[in-house]
Specification:
Elements (H helix, E strand, L loop, with lengths): L3 H8 L12 E5 L2 E6 L2 E6 L6 E3 L6 E2 L2 H4 L4 E6 L5 E6 L3 E6 L6 E6 L2 E5 L6 E2 L9 E2 L5 H9 L4 E2 L3 H10 L1 H8 L3 E6 L2 E5 L5 E2 L3 H44 L5 H12 L10 E6 L2 E6 L6 H43 L16 H4 L9 E4 L5 E4 L3 H11 L5 E5 L7 E3 L10 H13 L9 E7 L3 E2 L10 E2 L3 E5 L9
Parallel strand pairs: 12-13
Antiparallel strand pairs: 1-2, 1-5, 2-3, 3-4, 6-7, 7-8, 8-9, 9-10, 10-11, 14-15, 14-16, 17-18, 19-20, 20-22, 21-22, 21-23, 23-26, 24-25
Helix pairs in contact: 3-5, 4-5, 6-8, 7-8
Length: 486
């Protein structure tokens, strides 16, 4: 859990010098990195766990043309809140807000928001109010202990952190309240102060990277383990059911006996009936017969059925041996799964569907971008390509975007799940590209219409590239600052 107090100690580890400048701003997925000399400040704006660290990333330039070479005047935290502001010359600012699902990276000119990575904010930027509560850094040790136990508001700590710390017990509360610097990670707690248990680190940055990256690895491993367990159980149950059915006793000798009985009592059988009952070898047999066939032919049919079932019984025996062998392997794997951390040998149980694992091949004639949440954005390059993108390549449930009442490229937001509408922030990102590749690219606020492709149609009376939209909605974006990946 990334808290304001963690950010406070992380910033102390920055190696700032006079006249330090921005070398570049990079973006890779949901990560944004400010590069300045040896300092690399990277924000991971993941919905579940937004945080800052000094790790390097490989990414594309992001607003590089505007911020590259600009002198950093001040890097400051708002109180002990999860807000970081980087003030630059020429009245430029970069603001990181690390509030879980509402996390964002804002680029400001003065007080005006020029761009919002997630698209949550626009217009004039207003700093959130400084949180009220006990002063974590200045409070007496006993005050801090009482506040944690009572789960009161404490500046620099999230409510969830306070609750987790209190639930760990008084020993943890007392140790934390002493505020002796020693970054520690224990379960769901990331603390800048020494705790009685947990993994200790020399720096706050090391603790942050370990906490969030290790946590992600463990969560992924846990998810895979659950998938593997489910797959194993399904296979075991399926094989056990097949084995049960194969083991069900079936007397196939009855077919041979019916054939023999027909030949033995052929003079006594009334072939005008569909079935007859005879006593054969002290056994009462009910025999179905085909009145269009002779006695010999009916008997032969039963003999052939007996041979067929005999062959099937032999095949079933071979199949049973194979299934028993497979069951033994599966059960050994299930047993091993409970004691091993290496899941590589279980790959067969967590392979994704073909359509999920194979990268979609997108024609080079389309411009391709990726949103923060991994959605593909396709942009046409000409009227001909626009038409092909919308009416030949886009699927009915994909999102079509176009600037309102102005010429521009057709833009398609590729939807991952046809039953689930993409997040609004991804629509905002796709709208940015639609505005960027339009005649309105120099405007500060561009209306972009969007609707599912199923509600887009053309007409012979309209020029190629012109469409009619139904059920359209509109978002406003600012394409003035050049996007690094454009």
């Amino acid at each position: 859990m990334f808290t304001g107090i963690v950010l406070h100690y992380l910033l102390k580890e920055l190696d700032l010098k006079d006249k330090i400048k921005i070398d570049d701003i990079l973006r890779s997925g949901n990560e944004v990195s400010i590069v300045s000399g040896r300092n690399i400040l990277t924000a991971n704006l993941n919905r579940q766990s937004a945080y800052l660290s000094f790790k390097k990333i490989k990414g594309q330039g992001y607003f590089s043309s505007v911020f590259k070479g600009k002198k950093i005047l001040k890097i400051e935290q708002l109180g002990l809140d999860r807000i970081l502001m980087i003030n630059l010359e020429e009245n430029l600012r970069i603001v990181f807000e690390l509030f879980g699902r509402r996390s964002d990276c804002l680029f400001l000119q003065g007080e005006e928001i020029q761009s919002s990575l997630k698209g949550f904010k626009k217009g004039t930027y207003k700093l959130p109010s400084v949180p009220t509560g006990l002063d974590l850094l200045g409070a007496h040790e006993s005050e801090l202990i009482d506040a944690i136990i009572a789960e009161e508001k404490i500046n620099g700590l999230a409510v969830g952190f306070i609750k987790s710390l209190r639930l760990k017990g008084i020993e943890f509360v007392n140790s934390f309240s002493m505020r002796k610097f020693g970054p520690t990670v224990f379960d769901d707690i990331l603390s800048p102060y020494i705790l009685p248990e947990g993994k200790k680190f020399q720096s706050m940055n090391e603790a942050i990277i370990y906490c969030f990256e290790e946590k992600n690895r463990e969560e992924e491993k846990k998810r895979l383990r659950e998938i593997i367990e489910t797959g194993l159980e399904k296979k075991i149950l399926k094989n056990e059911e097949i084995l049960r059915q194969l083991n069900e006793s079936k007397d196939i000798s009855i077919y041979k006996q019916k054939g023999d009985a027909l030949l033995t009592y052929q003079g006594d059988i009334d072939f005008s009936k569909n079935n007859v009952v005879v006593n054969y070898l002290d056994r009462k047999l009910e025999i179905e017969i085909d009145s269009s066939l002779s006695v010999m032919e009916n008997a032969q049919a039963y003999f052939e059925l007996f041979k067929k079932e005999k062959r099937k019984a032999k095949s079933d025996e071979q199949r049973k041996r194979k299934i028993v062998k497979e069951l033994n392997v599966l059960m050994k794997k299930r047993e091993k799964l409970t004691t091993t951390d290496d899941l590589t040998e279980f790959k067969e149980f967590y392979k994704k569907k073909k359509e999920e694992t194979e990268e979609e091949v997108i024609p080079s004639k389309f411009r391709v971008f990726t949103t923060n949440n991994g959605y593909k954005v396709l942009v046409g390059k000409s009227a001909e390509v626009n038409h092909e993108l919308t009416f030949s390549f886009a699927r009915p449930y994909d999102i079509f975007l176009h600037v309102k009442n102005a010429p521009g490229s057709h833009t398609i937001l590729r939807v991952k799940d046809k039953n689930k509408f993409p997040p609004i922030e991804d629509i905002h990102e796709a709208a940015f590209y639609a505005a960027r590749f339009s005649k309105l690219k120099h405007s500060k606020s561009v209306p972009v219409s969007y609707a599912q492709k199923r509600y887009i149609r053309g007409s012979k009376n309209l020029s190629k590239g012109t469409v009619i939209m139904e059920r359209e909605k509109v978002v406003y974006v600012n394409p003035v600052i050049k996007h690094g990946s454009v």
